[in-house]
Design a protein that fits this description.
- The chain is of the alpha+beta class.
- It contains 12 helices and 5 strands.
- The chain folds into 2 domains: 215 residues; 152 residues, Alpha-Beta Plaits (2-Layer Sandwich).
- Helix content is 63%, strand content 10%.
- The protein has a 5-stranded mixed β-sheet, sandwiched between helices.
- Strand 2 and strand 3 form a beta hairpin.
- Helix 1 runs antiparallel to helix 2, helix 1 runs parallel beside helix 7 and helix 6 packs antiparallel against helix 7.
């Protein structure tokens, strides 16, 4: 089968339609706005390529002007998708692309009409494509393989359209948009089909990577408070504590809410959840730099420090107790005060494992509760086994 313009357009239609459908299905499952924009872009290419076939039947207005306008629109939708993916807001000035295209429609038909239209169309497509590629720069952070591929595919696609625009100034170049003839048009159709396939694959890989990262992040977070869970704490603790020494002792604070059941019984479990969230926000507000915090479960929280003195631990714990008591006494008054008991331990060597360290904090917490609750019990420098 010869790769004539109608054949290449048919291939482009099939590829773009498949890409639009696949990205739309992906969007329905994960609701990422970038997928919706990209799917709409490929759908627009599908419609535009279909309309382009009409020029062979003499429908020049629809088959040339409208189809090329849809090509510009499709690449602008790709740009919007990349902007949403990178969380960068585009200037409203970018919408002038469409005003520029409308001005081009007013050009009178003449000997240079095909070249001017082809150059304008190519530059408008290149503008959106190169901008999308620039938005995918790492900005100091590593990109996924899919995002890197998408960046360079868009860059190559944009450079091609710049080169395509420049060829119209070459003397003797044959461009006949009405008859759909010319080497530039033929090359453009081949490049377009390849670009559709590569861009679709890169976009899919980009969003799949982000989804996998989101799933991994959610697996490490407590769903109510968004603090780390125990699994994430155990994963990160060794690196945090590897430099603990007698000169820079570490500390663990185990925090438990006294009389938490009274809040649930008197105000409902929703109120109890709000109190847990409030405590997590208090912990975040006083958490020192290079420290870890997690919700171990229920109403039990932990703070892990890699450089702390007994004075600093006491100050941090007492600040939390005071803030928490002030909140509960005003928001959830109960027959018995809802307070915090804290068990803390200091150590001057990296612990053999986190479980042993938590057990030591738990013993200190038990002493705190047995001593009357609403207090902090601090054990001295020891090395858990």
């Amino acid at each position: 089968m010869p790769l004539d313009p109608p054949t290449m357009l048919t291939i482009s239609i099939a590829l773009a339609a498949a890409a639009a459908l696949y990205l739309a299905i992906e969007w329905r499952s994960i609701r990422e706005p970038s997928l919706l924009f990209w799917s709409a872009g490929f759908a627009t290419i599908t419609v535009g390529s279909t309309l382009a076939l009409l020029r062979s039947s003499g429908f020049l207005l629809i088959g040339i002007w409208f189809a090329n306008g849809l090509l510009v629109t499709a690449h602008f939708l790709f740009l919007l998708g990349v902007a949403r993916f990178t969380q960068i807001r585009l200037s409203p000035a970018w919408y002038l692309i469409f005003a520029t295209w409308l001005v081009m429609l007013l050009l009178p038909d003449g000997p240079l009409w095909s070249k001017v239209m082809l150059a304008a169309n190519s530059l408008l497509v290149a503008l959106s494509t190169l901008k999308a590629s620039s938005l995918l720069r790492p900005h100091g952070k590593s990109l996924s393989v899919g995002a890197v591929q998408l960046r360079y595919v868009l860059l190559g696609h944009g450079i091609f359209y710049v080169a395509k625009a420049l060829t119209v100034v070459i003397p003797g170049t044959l461009i006949d948009l009405a008859a759909f003839r010319g080497e530039i048009i033929q090359i453009s159709l081949v490049e377009g089909a390849m670009a559709i396939m590569l861009i679709a694959l890169s976009m899919t890989g980009t969003e799949r990577y982000r989804r996998e990262k989101q799933i991994a992040r959610l697996a490490e977070r407590d769903p109510l408070t968004a603090l780390y869970n125990r699994r994430a704490l155990e994963k990160r603790a060794p690196r945090l504590l590897e430099h603990v020494s007698p000169e820079h002792p570490g500390a663990l604070l185990l925090i438990d809410i006294d009389n938490f059941k009274l809040v649930n019984d008197q105000y409902g479990h929703t109120a109890g959840d709000r109190l847990l969230i409030a405590l997590s926000e208090m912990i975040r507000s006083v958490l020192p730099r290079n420290a870890l915090t997690a919700r171990l479960g229920g109403d039990e929280f932990v703070i892990l420090l890699n450089s702390a003195s007994s004075e600093r631990v006491m100050e941090l714990g007492n600040t939390l107790r005071e803030q928490f008591l002030s909140t509960t006494s005003q928001t959830f008054p109960t027959t018995a005060a809802v307070t915090l008991s804290i068990g803390a331990s200091l150590f001057d060597k990296p612990p053999a494992n986190l479980t042993a360290l938590i057990e030591q904090g738990d013993a200190a917490l038990y002493e705190s509760k047995r001593g009357g609750r609403n207090r902090l019990r601090l054990t001295g420098l020891t090395t858990p086994g």
